[in-house]
Amino acid sequence: MPDVRVSELAAFENPGRKVVEVAGIEVGIFRLGDEFFAYENKCPHLEGPVCQGKILPLATEDIQRDGTSNGRVFSKTQMNVVCPWHGFEFDIRTGMHPMDSRVRLRRIPVKVLDGAVYVSVTPKA
Amino acid sequence: MLDIPANKPLRELPEITAASDTRDYLAQAARQAVAYDDYELIVDVDAHLQEGGFWGEIIELLDNDVLRQTAMGMMRPGAMPLINMQAGMNFQSMSGRIPHQSGPLEKTEDPAKAGHRFVQIVRRTVESMGLDYQVIFPTSMLHLGMNPVEEIESGLARAYCRWLTEKILPEDDRIVGLIYLPFNSPLECEKLVQEFGMKKGVIGFTICAVRHKPVHHRQYARLYSMIQETGKPLVFHAGPHWDDPSFSQLNRFISMHALSFVHYNLIHMTNWIINAMPERYPRLKIAWVESGLAWVPYLMQRLDHEVMMRQSEAPGLKRLPSEYMREMYYSSQPLERNDLELLEMTMKKINAETQLMFSSDWPHWDFDPPSAITSLPFLSDKAKRNILGLNAARAFGLPVKRLRPRAAEVLARQRQAAS
What we know:
The structure holds 2 protein chains of 2 kinds.
Chain A: E1 3-8, E2 16-22, E3 25-32, E4 35-40, E5 55-63, E6 69-82, E7 89-91, E8 110-113, E9 116-120
Antiparallel strand pairs in A: 1-9, 2-3, 3-4, 5-6, 6-7, 8-9
Chain B: E1 11-12, H1 22-25, H2 27-32, E2 43-48, H3 55-59, H4 65-74, H5 111-114, H6 117-129, E3 133-137, H7 150-168, E4 175-180, H8 186-196, E5 202-208, H9 221-230, E6 234-237, H10 253-274, H11 277-280, E7 286-289, H12 295-309, H13 321-325, E8 329-331, H14 340-349, H15 352-355, E9 356-357, H16 371-374, H17 381-396, H18 407-418
Parallel strand pairs in B: 2-3, 3-4, 4-5, 5-6, 6-7, 7-8, 8-9
């Protein structure tokens, strides 16, 4: 599983995202602060190009102690990527769907070394 | 450790937006098409024109000069005069999360060289999904049945039929369509069947189901007889409607969408069955489009249960409602796939192997690619071939003749374009 350099660290926007094709596999690399996450660009729903979708905070329901709902508000901590095919959303940090953690993106190893960002992919047979 | 060679950077893929090329959007569908490349025929029985980009062309074809002047006088960029689309429909793209719902905004070639802009976009879709035929329905016009001005529905129906049969269908054999029946005006429906029913590429007739009209009413008897004689199917296309009093209680688009499509089909199917329409028009082929499938076994059970107790209210029936229902055709999208055990039972109950037809609903937000069918673990290879094309060929009288290029050719073209 060779490491492939995808970008200079300084050239990677923060927060930011790059989707690249590495050895026949499309990989989405996401940056949130100093953290990097990478996933195969294939939605577990119907294989849509999930990493090329919108990046938005998780929508939450603001429910008070007495059960009153103040409506929907965006999360201050969780960022999601949204599959443009059907809207399936995934936590960029965990790759999990907010409703069902069994539905998750395939993680690709990613690291920062000597001022560059690398991913490790197994080339397609 | 592999560094990027200085002269060969990695191919970078952009964010998908409403302006993305259909071929980029559906690149993965093109890869999935390899799995069914050897199938005899692939037919998508429900895809959509997003009329907004072509509305000026359609309203120019309004016969009535007052209506035409009214519409053209109201025409602004992005506007669709005379359409009674509810504001709530803007939620469909989920605030831009699903961009293809907001298109088409992609670039196309010069129409003088490459054909009508809509035809160019459909060609990109059929090639990406690996289709031989795609059946085109309107989008915003699905709500015209609720328009209080009867002549607006009938005028726009005729204008749309002219636009479709004069400008679109002649350009590509793979694009086929249905005549929009302005069901609030039975006589106009009959005229459109006579004038447009045998035009090139017209393979049936559609009633947009969002309306409050009893489909069994005697005023439609002659229309159904006429359609039966053509041998082409009558297709009920469901739709959403947030202004319906029951649905105005629902505070989220998802709630209204989940219920309203099915609601209209439940009503029309119930009237169709209880009034013994299958006995009265035994050669009339009926298809139900865009409500998924879960509603069908529910209604089969419900009607079978009640008709056994109240036979005197459905005396025209000679068999159980479910027996008539499993002889009708159904389109697959949006296929409820979360519980495969339930889906398998549903497909068994509707005789999916012979009665189910694949539909994509592209470019709408809940579209299904053909892989929604090919990836089902419980279907036989024969059932998949039937559902993906051969059932539609039988229902719509389409020749079983391959029109699509090989999947490998499409992928090679995509790779070349990307490089």
